[in-house]
Amino acid sequence: LIMERLRSELPALDASSHVADLGSAYGQLSRDLARTYGCRVTCLDLASKMNAVNVQRTKEAQLDHLIEVITGDYTQSGLESASFDVIVSQDAFLHAGERREVLISELSRLLKPAGMLVFTDIMQADDADPERIQELLSRIALESLTSPLYYKETGAKYGLELMKFDDLSYNIALHYRLVKQVAANKQDRLKMTSDQLTKMNAGCEKWSVAGDDGHLKWGIMVMKKKTE
Fold first, then answer.
1. How far is 11 from 9, CA to CA, in rounded Å?
2. Per-residue exposure over 70-105, b if at least 16 CB sit within 10 Å of its own CB, e if not
3. Quick one: pLDDT band at residue 200, thresholds 50, 70, 90?
4. CB 42: neighbour CB atoms within 10 A?
C-alpha cells in the first residue's frame, strides 16, 4: 500500500526516465517502477548481501536490462551529477545520522533541474520533547533524528523545495505494535529468548507510545529541485 501511495506522488515516468533508488534494500520498489513504466533505475545500498538478493530477484523478473545495482554510500554516491529525473527512498535516510546535511547536498547534486525527490522517513516532530527522543534513540545506533522542518529548511539551502508532506504518522504506533505481535507469534522461528523478546517488546512499546503522543513523524516527503 505504501508503495502505491509513494508511486502516486511521482511525476510522469516513461522509458526515457532515470530513477535512483537510494537505500534500495531488496529492490522491490525499483522493480515495481521498472516494470510499470519501463524506466531505468539505479539502486544504491551499502548492504552487499541485500544487493546480491536484489540482483538475483531482478534477473528472475527479467528486468536486469533496466535496473543497475550498486554497493555504495548514498552520502557520497560517486554517481554522475544531474543525472536523475527522480530519486526515491523508503525509510533509509534516517541512517545518515549526523551526515544528513551531506546527504541532502548529495541528493541535490544528483537531481536534474526540476527533478523530484520522493521518500519516506521516520522523523521526530518539529516540537518533540528532546528527552523522549533521546530515550528512544538510546536503544538503537542513532544519536538523533531529523524532522520535517529540517528537511524543509536544509533542502531549501541546497535548492530543494518542499512541495508536500503527506503526514501518515498514525502508522507509527500501528507498525511497532504489529512488530510485537509478529515477534511473539514467531519467537521460535526467530530464535529469540524470552528475555530478548521482553526487551524488544519494551522498546517497541516506547516507540508506539511516542508515536501516539505526537513526538514522532512519518510520511511521504515530496521535494523538487529548482531550475535556477
1. 7
2. eeebbbebebeeeebbbbbbbebbbbbeeebeebbb
3. confident
4. 22
CA 173, CA 167: separation in Å to the nearest integer?
14
71, 20, 21: which is closest to 49 by C-alpha? 71
Q: Report the interhelical angle of 100-110 vs 148-157 (nearest 10°).
A: 50
Q: Binning pLDDT at 50, 70 and 90, where does residue 82 land?
A: very high
Residues in contact with 209: Cβ distance below 8 Å, sequence separation at least 6, in sequence order:
173
* Residue-wise burial string across 144-162, b where 16 or more C-beta atoms lie within 10 A, e elsewhere: ebbbbbbbbebbeebbbeb
- Quote the cell numbers at residue 35: 516494470
**189: exposed, middle or buried (C-beta count within 10 Å: 0-12, 13-18, 19+)?**
exposed
Distance CA(45)–CA(14), nearest Å, equals: 24
Q: What is the pLDDT of residue 192?
A: 85
Flag whether the pTM goes above 0.70. yes
Q: Contact 70/42 with Cβ under 8 angstroms?
A: yes
The answer for 128, left when phi > 0, alpha when psi is -120 to 50, beta otherwise, is: beta
The per-residue pLDDT for range 1-52, each reduced to its tens digit, is 688 889 999 999 999 999 999 999 999 999 999 999 999 999 999 999 999 9
Phi, psi of 110, deg, nearest 5: -75, -25
